[in-house]
């Protein structure tokens, strides 16, 4: 079997590490894009008609394909190109055409599906070019057409409809992320600076039918926030977006321009009458798979939370406090790395939420005499394999400590500089993966023997 964690063998240097990595691998397998689409989506005949059957954890959705004159696919977000290609293959000749906008190039032989590569976490001209093609397709649809949309995390940056949105989105994203705004606050603002987010795509597609398969990277699975909800009715308002902006930078001239450019999202519910938004996948599936693998390995799994949030460097500490010997504590969520002052913003190092989460917990463990680092393995990874860097995350344990001491590395110094990537690069504990899994935020575990 080809493993999703590409440096598994190099990392699995002892039994504890191997167990932690096997559990993480099980999580990745549960969100493997090709396997998931192949298992969950089928075209089946019934009484002379063809249906697209979508298998969900507790039910099945059936779409009568014979009700539509034309069928299109649009994919937006991380993993959407591979998902769209897999679904296009299943639909076969039923498919009229499609467009997918992703962060990774996809070589596909399906002439009906166009794929484009955009930039993330900040949009660019590439994003506008591809988004304009999606907008043109959306506006061309009629009442007898069906659009199947794959909406995935990362779509907020990728799906960018105009030059004005590009300028405003870059400005808002840079400011809000640096000052610690969470993803909900950021997406509230981005919705109201866009013609395609916050239900904007649904308005463009109207009066065609939309079946939106949403892969959630949002805590609590608020579908209107995944990729800023291009097919979901938006309950937030222009005033809500203004409040977010003023909360973080009250008097900045550049932010005043953002406030002036805020617009209202579509509020006429007629645009959403023929839209079916489906939670296709979330972090629930990989965390449950991780729990099953832990049982196979003779461990006692405990799911701490599927909505873990907070400051990244402190995130794993409650998991450690909550565990006993022989347990593995699991969590899914999305944390925040906050820059506390202008000096930090100018001088911060390289890293992501996951490497910082592991480094923060690792540093606390070795500084507190009540914990014995040799009994623990700490691991945190981005589900799509991109932790704001080319690495997915990191693993930390006694071997990390030995390597750090041998190399004269001070983990607290690296943590203070938000330089977790380079710390784990020097200790050899970065985790790398194949980029073929869905983005459902972050997967975390602490293992104790």
Q: Outline of this structure?
A:
By secondary structure, the chain is of the alpha/beta class. The chain is built from 18 helices and 15 strands.
Enumerate the spans where pLDDT stays under 50 for 5 or more consecutive residues: none
| Domain module count | 2
Overall radius of gyration: 22 Å
CATH superfamily heading of the largest domain? Glycerate kinase, MOFRL-like N-terminal domain
How far apart the termini lie comes to 28 Å
- Average residue-wise pLDDT: 94
**Largest sheet: number of strands, sense, barrel closure:** 6 strands, parallel
Shape: globular
Helix content: 25-40%
CATH topology of the largest domain: Rossmann fold
Counting DSSP E segments of at least 2 residues, the number of strands comes to 15
CATH architecture of the largest domain: 3-Layer(aba) Sandwich
Q: Helix/strand-derived class? A: alpha/beta
CATH class term of the largest domain? Alpha Beta
- Strand numbers in spatial order across the main sheet: 6-5-4-7-8-9
Give me the number of helical elements: 18
Strand percent estimate: 15-25%
Overview of the structural elements:
By secondary structure, the chain is an alpha/beta fold. The chain folds into two domains: 8-30 and 284-448, glycerate kinase, domain 1, CATH 3.40.1480; 36-281, Rossmann fold (3-Layer(aba) Sandwich). It is built from 18 helices and 15 strands. The chain has helices at 8-11, 15-29, 33-40, 80-91, 125-140, 155-158, 163-178, 183-191, 200-205, 238-248, 253-261, 284-296, 317-321, 342-347, 353-367, 398-407, 411-416, 420-427; strands spanning 41-46, 49-55, 60-64, 70-76, 97-102, 113-117, 145-152, 209-215, 275-281, 300-308, 327-333, 376-382, 393-396, 430-431, 442-448. The strands form three sheets. A six-stranded parallel sheet has the order 6-5-4-7-8-9, sandwiched between helices. A six-stranded mixed sheet has the order 10-11-15-12-13-14, sandwiched between helices. A hairpin with a 2-residue loop joins strand 1 and strand 2 (49-55). Helix 3 (33-40) runs parallel beside helix 4 and helix 16 packs across helix 18. The longest helix has 16 residues, at 125-140. The protein starts with 7 loop residues before the first helix and ends with a strand. The model has no long low-confidence stretch (mean pLDDT 94).
């Amino acid at each position: 079997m080809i493993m999703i964690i590409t440096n598994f063998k190099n990392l699995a240097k002892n039994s504890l590490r191997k167990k932690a990595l096997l559990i993480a691998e099980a999580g990745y397998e549960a969100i493997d894009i090709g396997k998931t689409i192949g298992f969950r989506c089928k075209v089946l005949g019934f009484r002379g008609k063809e249906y697209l059957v979508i298998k969900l954890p507790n039910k099945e959705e059936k779409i009568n394909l014979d009700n539509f004159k034309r069928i299109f696919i649009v994919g937006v977000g991380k993993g959407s190109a591979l998902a769209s290609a897999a679904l296009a293959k299943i639909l076969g000749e039923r498919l009229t055409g499609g467009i997918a906008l992703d962060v990774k190039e996809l070589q596909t032989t399906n002439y009906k599906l166009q794929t484009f590569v955009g930039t993330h976490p900040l949009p660019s001209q590439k994003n506008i070019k591809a988004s304009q093609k999606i907008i043109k397709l959306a506006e061309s649809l009629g009442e007898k057409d069906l659009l199947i949309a794959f909406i995935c995390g990362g779509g907020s940056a990728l799906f960018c409809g105009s030059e004005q949105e590009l300028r405003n989105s870059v400005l808002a994203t840079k400011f809000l992320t640096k000052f610690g705004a969470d993803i909900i606050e950021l997406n509230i603002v981005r919705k109201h600076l866009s013609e395609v987010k916050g239900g904007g795509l649904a308005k463009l597609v109207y009066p065609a039918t939309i079946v939106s398969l949403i892969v959630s990277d949002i805590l609590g699975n608020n579908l209107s926030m995944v990729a800023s909800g291009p097919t979901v009715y938006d309950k937030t308002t222009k005033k809500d977006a203004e409040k977010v902006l003023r909360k973080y930078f009250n008097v900045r001239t550049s932010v005043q321009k953002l406030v002036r450019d805020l617009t209202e999202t579509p509020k006429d519910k007629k645009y959403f009458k023929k839209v079916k938004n489906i939670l296709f996948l979330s972090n629930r599936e990989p965390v449950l798979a991780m729990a099953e693998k832990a049982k196979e390995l003779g461990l006692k799994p405990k799911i701490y939370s599927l909505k873990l949030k907070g400051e990244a460097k402190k995130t794993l500490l409650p998991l450690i406090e909550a565990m006993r010997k022989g347990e593995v504590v699991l969590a899914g969520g999305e944390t925040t790395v906050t820059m506390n002052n202008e000096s930090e913003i100018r001088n911060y190092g390289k890293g992501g939420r996951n490497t910082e989460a592991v480094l923060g917990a690792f540093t606390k463990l070795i500084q507190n005499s009540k914990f014995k680092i040799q009994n623990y393995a700490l691991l945190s990874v981005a589900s799509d394999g991109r932790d704001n860097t080319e690495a997915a995350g990191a693993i930390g344990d006694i071997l990390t400590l030995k390597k750090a001491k041998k190399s004269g590395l001070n983990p607290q110094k690296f943590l203070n500089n938000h330089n977790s990537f380079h710390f784990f690069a020097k200790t050899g504990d970065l985790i790398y993966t194949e980029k073929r899994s869905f983005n459902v935020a972050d997967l975390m575990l602490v293992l104790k023997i």
